[in-house]
Write a structure and sequence with these properties.
The protein has about 180 residues and is of the alpha/beta class. The chain has 5 helices and 6 strands, in the order H-E-E-E-E-H-E-H-E-H-H. The chain is about 40% helix and about 10% strand. It is elongated, with a radius of gyration of 25 Å.
Length: about 180
């Protein structure tokens, strides 16, 4: 696939906000010369090979063994758009792979794209192109209102006080057991 083809396909995926790795270089699909009305048409292959893995709620199998989930639903929306633009049906073939296998397969063009929970980071962006993320998550620490202090000192105090209490409890149990055994 030529660089301009990748750019157009990436634009389509970006607009739809899909968390799918864009079609890697070397795959089928070329831009057809611009018609006189300046509408760009994308020549879409009849079949896309998509790497995925079970990562609920992004990619999972239903009772019938069909792939569903947030990333899969978005992939199907992009596929419907590709079918509409190309005027023909585009079949999706799913290949189950580990995350490392998925990334290698996209990079080496053994699949057209990957759809699952895929974290975008600097090292991966050096290897391939990604759409923009549509999901973010983080780790939080909850502290009770009575223990609340501002900043990190409040969090450290709350965590340490619980840790010390657990340690004291374990030591008490140890001494009770050692006296009676």
């Amino acid at each position: 696939m030529m660089r301009s083809e990748k750019s157009l396909l990436q634009l389509v995926l970006f607009v739809l906000g899909l968390s799918v790795v864009s079609i890697a270089s070397g795959q089928e699909g070329t831009l057809v010369d611009k018609p006189a009305d300046d509408v760009v048409k994308l020549k879409v292959p009849d079949r896309l090979t998509v790497a995925t893995r079970e990562v609920p709620p992004f990619a999972m199998r239903n009772e019938d063994g069909q792939w569903i989930g947030i990333s899969i639903d978005l992939l199907r929306e992009v596929n419907a758009e590709l079918e509409s633009e190309s005027g023909h049906e585009v079949e999706i073939d799913f290949k189950v792979m580990s995350l490392a296998e998925m990334l290698d397969a996209v990079e080496n063009s053994t699949v057209d794209l990957a759809a699952a929970a895929i974290t975008v980071n600097y090292e991966r962006e050096k290897r391939m192109d990604f759409t923009h993320s549509f999901h973010t998550s983080g780790l939080g620490i909850a502290v009770g209102a009575k223990q609340r202090q501002s900043g990190w000192s409040g969090i450290v105090d709350a965590v340490l006080s619980k840790t010390l209490a657990i340690t004291r409890h374990r030591l008490s149990i140890y001494f009770v057991i050692s006296r009676h055994c």
